[in-house]
Each structure stands twice: as structure tokens, then as C-alpha cells.
Amino acid sequence: MAKNTRRRGRQDRLNDTTDQDAQRPVWPGIDGGRLKPLLPDEVQLIEDSALTLLDTLGLSQATESMVNKVVAAGGRLTDEGRLLFPRALVTSTLQQARRTFTLCGQNPEHDLMIDKARVHMSTGGAAPGVFDMDTGQYRPSTLADLYDAARLVDGMENIHHFSRPLVARDVDDTAAMDLNTAYACLVGTSKHVSISITEPDHVPQIAALCYEIAGGEAAFRARPFLTVMVCHVVPPMRFAEEACEVLESAIRAGFPVQLISAGQAGATSPATIAGSLTQAVAETLAGLVFAQLVDPDAMAIFAPKPLVADLRTGSMSGGGGEQAILMAAAAQMGRHFDLPTSSIAGITDSKTLDAQYGAEKSLAVALAAHAGSNIVTQAAGIHASLLGVSLEGYVTDNDLLGNILRTLRGVEATPQNIAADVIANVCRGAGHYLGEIHTFDRMKSDYFYPHVGDRRTPDEWQQDGARTVAEVARDKARELLATHFPSHIPDDTDRALRARFDIRLGRPRIGRAP
């Protein structure tokens, strides 16, 4: 009976594919979730352990607003100042949480349906550096780099979502940095954007910016195109008070929120993969309870993102197999709870576009995607263990992600795809499939062709200069940066934004007349 259920589910997903998607080899929202690194009894043990931690240990440093809401819902504040979350409260939250919503683009063609195991690829990080394409050296990242990253991603069809990947280190004031980060991302791409906000007092200004772009508060609330990422905990099992205030303000302003726990195994979470995952699940569920108490209809994304350390040095080790399987297991827990889920994958430890970069990024992103993470952050551009961003990396990763998405589609064994009648005709006729209409029909719909990956013969490659994929991607990135200046925000709206807010990117820098 179980096997038949799985087959019907697979066929249902194939039937859900739109006519437009059927003409493409890959698309946003291909269904994952078939990889399950945790056995059923392990899933249940992690859930039970997480609920026990919340019920008996709880978290410290809760804000007054959180304490009041959780206690009113049945929780308890201990004499030690730890806020306890009863099992009944957490399970009720899980039952009532939103399962599906749309992360809107400013352009509706970039809307992302967050539902069950639909997978979308994203950038991410808060890198302090950028790999300079001209010098080949790392340097401090700037606001202009952030804008350039956004508009590169705007042109990459397999990077579906733009999560702020780097810090604008040339903007000193935190309020101005938060505002200009939002502006640079939103003017650079019409895809859905995610940012973090440093202080709760900064939320109203970011909201006002978004309302102005949307054409009013009601319009933004109807189609929110910016998510606020919140690390609401400081592991182990402590709330980040200011971040929790940001979380509450962001939900009230109409933003989707991403609830992130990012402990580091062996330092701020247990050294074992299972222990680190369990703690992160507990911490993230505590944030989900609070988010739902603020607004029962909150668009909240479950995002346990524990990180792995190299225990010989204590430094982060984002490219290892441990990180890859940890994120796949975290995604599986999200699917177990049937919650909108985000995972962190693709944090290569490599410093440049080399074999290590490709191997580590492919391993982690593929596992998270096949486990059914709805938003795979850090999947593109980030490297050096979250310390650097490579603009040309977005170009190479667009190919890498296209290939991974193609694996998500699977074999799709249907009578039409098996094409037994075509096999019979070929065997009785020409003896090959090169001239068959079936072959021509499937060339574009079934096969992903890389943009910068090289499939030529060695002789052809050598005659063309024997360039590496990084060199080809660098040229492509330079070409896009010289020509692609998104104009989805109308010119009069941009001028109105500049009249109202402290916008630091000059109009000529974004391809507009002064």
C-alpha cells in the first residue's frame, strides 16, 4: 500500500507541472524530498528530544513581550529565568502553522511557491569580503558589490532567490547600512529578497521603503517581496533579545520571516551531528511558537542551520561531508513537520573557483535539495567558509545548480517517456534515434545545457585558448555587469525614494540619469 501511495504522489507531482515548465529542463520549485538520511525512529527521537528540551530546560533571555505571550499560552518562566515551552503548546503551533505561502518577486514571474518539498536555490551569507575579479585578491566588500551581486543573480535563471550575501562595509552607521542593504538588493533584482535587520528601531524604515516601492502598505502586505532573516537565538538555548524584538516588529510590519538557529558543533552546540541538529530544531521551534503568538497567520520559515567546525582548530568547516549530511537531516525534519523550510548548503571552504569549490558545493547543495529544503541558501557565490563572495561564482554556480535541479526531476518513468513504440520503430528502421521527432522534441525539455561549462573536444578547447571555467565565467560576469541594469523600479519611484531616504548608491551607479 505504501509503495502505491508513493507512486501516486510522484505522478501527481508530474501532473502539476505547468505547460511552461514542461518546455524547460529545470524550473523553480521542482519537487525534492526523496532523500531521507534519518530513519523513522531517528526522526521521532529527535522530535521527542527537542520537545523535551523545550518543556524541561527552555531558553533563557526571553524578552518581556515573549514571556507574556508564552506564559499566557501555557508556558512558564522558571526561577532561573528560563522560559519553558510545554509540549502541548509546541504541538499546537506545529498543527496551526502556515504550510504554504508565496514569496513574491517584484516581478510576479519570479514568485516562489513555498509548498511541501518544492526546492528553490538562493544566495546567502554575510561575507565581509569579495574576491576582486580584476586583482584576483580579496578585499572588503562594499555597497556597490552588493548591488552588483543582486543584478548578476537577476540574470541567472537557476538562482531563484536573492538573500543578502555580503556586508556593505563602506556604510558605517548601522541604520544606514540596513536601509541601503535593502535598497541595493531591491533595485538590483526583481526576485524575492531576504535581508537581516540589525536593530528593532530600523524595521519601520525598511518597511516604509518597501511600502513606497510596492505603492502602499496594503499592496506590500498583499505581495511581500522581502523576507527578514532573524537569528533569534544565541546558542546554546538562549534568545537573542534584540533579534527577538526585530522578529516581532518585522512580523507586525507584514514581512515573511526566516527563523534561524546557527550553532556551531563542538562550540555552541553538541559536537555530534544528532545533538547539534536536535538543539537547532528545539531553538527554531521556540522561535516559531513566538512568531505564531505574535500573528497566527505569520509567514514563518523553519530554518535550523547548525554549522560544523573543524575540531582540530575550532574554525568553521562548511565544506565537509558532516555539514552536507547535517543540512540534509535538517531539511528532512522540516519535511517531517511539513513546515516551510530553509537550509544552509554550499559553504565551501575553498578560496577560489577550483576543484574543491565545485566538489564541496555540489555535495552539500545536492543533499539539501534532494532532502526537500524549500530554500537552499548559500547555494551560489559564497566561499572561503562564508568569508568571501565571488561574483563570477554566480555564473559558474548557475550551471551547477541547473544540473542539481535536473537530478531532482528524476527519471520520470511514464509510458510516454519510456517510448516503447519509438524503440520498436527505430529497431525495425534506421537503427538509431538521431532523426526521430521524439529526440528533437526532448532536446530542450529533458536536457540541461551549461552556459559556461565546456563540453568541446580537447583540441577545440586548446584552439580557443584553453581557458578555465573561472576565466569564462569572469568574462560573462563582466559582460552582464556592463550591460544589465534592472529597471523594474520606475524612475519616478526611485527619485521619490531618494527624496525620502538616505540612499547611498548614486543614480549613475545603477544606470540612471543623475
UniProtKB/TrEMBL annotation:
Keywords on record: Methyltransferase, Transferase
Ranges where the record places region Disordered: 1-33
Bias kind Basic residues: ranges: 1-10
UniProt similarity note: Belongs to the trimethylamine methyltransferase family.
Protein name: Methyltransferase
Entry keyword Methyltransferase: yes
GO MF entries: methyltransferase activity
One record GO biological process: methylation
One Pfam family of this chain: MTTB
Keyword Methyltransferase part of the UniProt annotation: yes
Organism: Falsiruegeria litorea R37
EC number: 2.1.1.-
InterPro entries per UniProt: MttB-like_sf, MTTB_MeTrfase
